[in-house]
Amino acid sequence: MLEWFDKRRESVVMSGIRDHVRAVGDAASELNKAVTSLCGADSAKAMDALNRMLLAEKEADTIEERMSMELSKGDMEPKEREDLMRLVRRMDFIADWSKEAGMNLQLILEGKVKVPCSLWAHYHEMTIELERAAKELRASIENLGINEDMAEKHSREVERLEHVLDDLYFVTKKEILFSDIDPRAVFLLRDMLHGIENAADSCKDVADIIHILITSEAHKVR
Predict the structure, then answer these.
(1) How far does Cα 215 stand from its chain's mean position?
(2) Ordered structural domains, the chain, with CATH
(3) Among 5, 81, 93, 221, which is 20 to 30 Å from 174 by CA?
């Protein structure tokens, strides 16, 4: 499989994978920018970031659809095609769940629901780590077929960041539980929290797939 990456770095599919991971990373990045803006009480800037996030998520979906078509008519073995489709679909989940979190954030803004700055600070920590995880995934994928050690290093860092996010998730959930806030805020913040957590889990899923690809190729060489 990794030989396939090496030989077809300039193929339509490889170009699509690079474009896809970039669009997915953009969605996570814009979600972080939106939350960062709220830490500064700038709702207009947050909405601008959310609009860019929606565009990035839509672009990721479009690329995924195009790649599905390309993979269905490529020269790969069925197992290779299946592995690549699984990689692409899991990557798309990152953008999907980032969008889910962003849509709940948009409802908070549109409903003018009051949220304490201390809570936004917790969400800010989480979206920073989510953006980092997406960047590490991009670096890992860009090294497939070129430098497997670097690809593995970046995928392992994604797993570490996912554990960091797990800890932040429970800290934030506890903060919500003991906060005296509008019940609407509790409902929307909870769903937003789940979206960020699921996006992080999807990052780890992609990293696991990359690890499996690298490990199986190493065994094949032996």
Answers:
(1) 23
(2) 2-221 (1.20.58.220)
(3) 93
DSSP line for 139-194: HHHHHTTT-HHHHHHHHHHHHHHHHHHHHHHHHHHHHHHT----HHHHHHHHHHHH
- What whole-number distance in Å separates Cα of residue 133 and Cα of residue 155? 9
Q: Which two tokens stand for residue 166?
A: 């797990």
Cβ proximity of 83 and 209 under 8 Å: yes
Per-residue pLDDT of the chain (222 residues; tens, 9 = 90+): 555 454 454 467 777 888 999 999 999 999 999 999 987 788 999 999 999 999 999 999 999 988 888 777 766 677 777 888 888 899 999 999 999 999 999 999 999 988 888 899 999 999 999 999 999 999 999 888 788 899 999 999 999 999 999 999 999 999 898 888 888 999 999 999 999 999 999 999 999 988 888 887 666 644
Task: Give the whole-angstrom CA distance, residue 192 versus residue 20.
Answer: 23
Residues shown for the chain: 222
